[in-house]
Amino acid sequence: MKKLKLLLPLFLAGLFLVSCGEKPNDNGHDDDHSDDGQGMEMVDPPKFIIPVHEADNLYLNYGNNRADFLEEVVNEQNPDLEEEYTPTRFVTVDFDEMYQYMKFVKQQSDKAKIKPEGLRFYFGQIKSKGSKGIDPGVETLFFNPTANFDGIEGGISYAIKTDVSGNISAVTVGSIIDSSKTQQTQKGANLLLQGGIQSLAGNRGHLPPPPHPGDPDDYH
């Protein structure tokens, strides 16, 4: 009995040391997404990450095989331009704004009970006219989330619709555009005017003066 009394404190002390040595795992991360020691979740690189030099080759290929051709043709077709046309080579979007945009898309999609499957980038042109009325405008990129819809093969761009009863659903961008081209009821027209459609298309990128082909600071 006396020996048992001596061993009991040692046993309890051993349990205390073991419990202190265990690290709680209540952060919801698995072994593949460990913590860096500063509270930041570590993630694996996406599969579409490419090497720096491969990206540089893509950039130079576009400059040599597309941008030069566009510049030559547009300037030839618009000889009265006040300034020589140079094609847009890149568009910069603010990182924090893009991060907020992605969260907004997720938020609105959750309300409509639809899962965003992709982010589709479109080429566009800003149709601004110069003082002489001849200005081809500059190229830009805009983007829209895509999702799967029943009866439609592949992902398609969508927006969020709120009907007069407050029900929220996802609708294809095409259905919105097509409906605006046809005769609508006054009720439907008023719904659109009241903001019944929440667009998820993003643009407003920064368009810097494009560098010229051969510029050593092209992709820098």
TrEMBL record:
Residues 200-220 are annotated as: Disordered. Keywords: Signal. Residues 1-21 form the signal peptide. It comes from the Bacteria. PROSITE patterns: PROKAR_LIPOPROTEIN. This is Lipoprotein. It comes from Dokdonia sinensis.
